[in-house]
Structures are given as C-alpha cells and as structure tokens.
Design brief:
With 108 residues, the chain is an alpha+beta fold. 25% of the residues lie in helices and 20% in strands. The strands form three sheets. A two-stranded antiparallel ribbon has the order 1-2. Strands 3-6 form a two-stranded antiparallel ribbon. A hairpin with a 3-residue loop joins strand 4 and strand 5. Helix 1 packs across helix 2. It is elongated, with a radius of gyration of 18 Å.
Length: 108
C-alpha cells in the first residue's frame, strides 16, 4: 500500500440527492475498469477463440452472473487467466489489471 498524492487538485465532491436529503460524493466514483493486460505487455489472443481475457470473462460471466457480484467475478477471471499458458516455445503468460475508483456496490 502506498500513500502519496497523484496531482495538485482537491476533490470538492459533487452534490447528490434532493434539497431535503442531499449529500456529496467524490467527483470520480462508481467506476470499475478492467484492462486485459498490464501496461507494457501484450494481450494474448487465440486466432480461433479470441483473446484470453475475453475467453475467461465470457466463461465466468456465463456461469456466475446471476449470483456472484462483478468484483468477485473479476477475481475468478484473474485466477483462470493466470493459469493459461501458450503452447508455443515461449510459454507466454498473462494477467489483467483492474482499477476501482470508488465502486463499492454489489453488481450482479
């Protein structure tokens, strides 16, 4: 865990709700980002079945979308993706990256 500033801006929040029941949220919130790989690396792809990341994503979502929330499914995708290995001499691997910017809801 690293604690440091990442710019000079102050987050003054955004007002939400009604005049009777108002509250403020951070300006950047409710964002969940999944990148198929980490910076600097290729995203592996099978010419017949598509990218490894989307193969894993479709498999996990098809089997679990009704009763497992998206963040837990991302963990499942990560575990499956980490097990993949190319069949060529290089034995390539891949991991994906998730960024959570204030996304704390359960999404099914």
């Amino acid at each position: 865990l690293l604690q440091y500033c990442r710019g000079d801006e102050h987050d003054l929040g955004v007002k939400r709700g009604t005049q009777v029941d108002s509250f403020k949220l951070p300006e950047v919130t409710d964002i969940l980002i999944a990148n198929s790989t980490v910076p600097g690396f290729v995203s592996n792809r099978n010419t017949q079945h598509g990218s490894w990341f989307f193969q894993c994503l479709v498999e996990v979502f098809k089997e679990n979308a009704n009763d497992v929330d998206i963040r837990d499914m991302f963990d499942m995708i990560g575990r499956i993706l980490n097990e993949k290995e190319s069949i060529d001499e290089e034995k390539r691997k891949q991991t994906f990256e998730q960024t959570n910017r204030g996304f704390y809801k359960k999404l099914y």
